[in-house]
Amino acid sequence: MTVEGWLAMGEAALCGFAIRRRRQLPIGAEFPLIPALLVAHLMLFGLPAALFRNEFLGLGSSTSWSIAVPETISPATLRETAMVVFAGILALLVGYELPLARMLVAPLPAIRVAWRRNPMPGALILMGCGLIATVLEKERHSDSLAGILGMFSFVGLWAMGALWLLNWRGVGGRWTRLATVTMTAGLFGVEVIQGALWRPLIDLVLLFVIYLRARGRMPWLALALAIPAFLAMAASKIVFRTLLPADQWSTTGVLEKLEIYGHSLTLAFDDPSGLDLGETLLSRMSETWVLAVVVERSPRFVPYWNGATYSAVGWSFVPRLLAPDKPRETTGQDFPHRYGITAPDDDQTSTNFAALIELYANFGPAGAVLGMMLFGIACRGLERLFAEARFDDATYALAAPVLASLLLIEQPFHGAFGGFVQHTPFLILILELCGICAVSIAPATGASIPGTDRQMARQQVCE
After folding, report:
1. pLDDT tens digits, 95-129
2. What is the pLDDT of residues 63-80, one digit of tens each?
3. Which residues touch 317 (CB under 8 Å, ≥6 apart)?
4. CB count, 10 Å around CB of 111?
5. What span, in angstroms and rounded, lies between the C-alpha atoms of 255 and 261?
6. What are the C-alpha distances in Å from 8 to residues 80, 275, 279, 282?
7. DSSP assignment, residue 74?
8. Is the pLDDT of residue 430 over 80?
9. Which of 32, 267, 309, 367 to pair with 436, CA 20 to 30 A apart?
């Protein structure tokens, strides 16, 4: 077995350790942030290096890739890349499990949420607002308005999770369930036709953890059906982007995009052999080769950035509505041009600057390990902040979309935490103003709050 294979097995063992640590709690008692983060890194970084080793070593000779690869990745580079990934995953887990992390986050308070009344009508209205905001978000708007629409889209994400949780708890009737299903399908469809799968994936993760919370068991059949469906969608996405070039993106309406996406799905199912699923798994759904390019070229050809990409971290926490002149986020363009991943004259293609890659590009392997360890400590702090979610459905409904958004490991750290700082207070404000929830800050007591049992939850909501 290759070194990459052994390291992938080690990463899988770390994932198993993190999952096993949760077995002392009932399934769905808390959001599985650390296990989910470890699995996400394993899927996007670890496994591809082991399963597609020969394909990675021949990337430089490929002529069919939509994103240029500057040179052939050598076995030594791929091996070093796999070692960086393993060290980063291990550091994330160690940082979370360190006694020091527990000591640092011990003074943090906990957010506690309680239903003020039957939340179903208000949640339905907010999900409708989120659906409308998601549709409008795709049109041309000023940056300030785009930020507001993004916040309302996040409110819609909360509403979707809350509605499904309440429905699975037995609250609400047939028409409420029908409205929830209809709007969920609409939201999923609008997000899918944007040509990217990260937002639908977050929707699926949210529904998955909400189901675990409400039912207390794994939805094995749904998972078995979701995996091949997701791969088929990922492959047809290439056809969709071919039929709808980037220069036509902003001028094409939602209904027309739906029609084009349906046509791409038809082509995918009619001629599956014509789709290069390997390219999708390697170039579109794997961050391994991007990290390998950075490892290959740093610091011999491209010097480390020495923290330059973190210089605007403070601005990421400030809504553009409050600071219209704040600097624009350009790392999606600066990063691939710096490493020759995209052509110099290509100003359309944006490349993900995953958090682990950003750490390596700035500080090298030592910085990547230390940064991932700090990320683990931050995850411990977030778990402390939402500690009451273990005992209360309303708090869990708030924590689930917030923590699910952190699973987008393809974006930089400040992008994930910037969204957390902006969206969470706005969501809490909306819930308070609408009279749906009462939100308070208090020391984490660890005492059980009525609401985790299905019958008690139904009685609490209906009172």
Report:
1. 999 888 888 888 888 999 999 888 999 999 999 99
2. 344 444 445 678 888 899
3. 417, 418, 421, 422
4. 20
5. 10
6. 13, 27, 21, 16
7. P
8. yes
9. 32
Side chain identity, residue 340: G
Q: What's the number of domains the chain is made of?
A: 1
Mean pLDDT of the chain: 80
Q: Cβ neighbours of residue 70 under 8 Å, at least 6 residues apart?
A: 60, 293, 297, 339, 340, 341
Question: Residue 190's pLDDT is what?
Answer: 82
pTM score:
0.84
Nearest to 92 by CA among 38, 142, 161: 38
Residue 246 is part of which domain span? 3-462
* Token representation of residue 122: 């208000």
**H or E element, residue 437:** strand 437-442
Q: Which stretch of DSSP H or E encloses residue 166?
A: helix 143-168
Following DSSP, what letter does each residue of 324-338 receive, concatenated?
TTSPP--HHHHHHHH
Dist CA 330 CA 353 (whole Å): 10
Rounded Cα gap, residues 264 and 233, in angstroms: 9
Q: What angle do CA 407, 412, 413 make, to 5 degrees?
A: 70
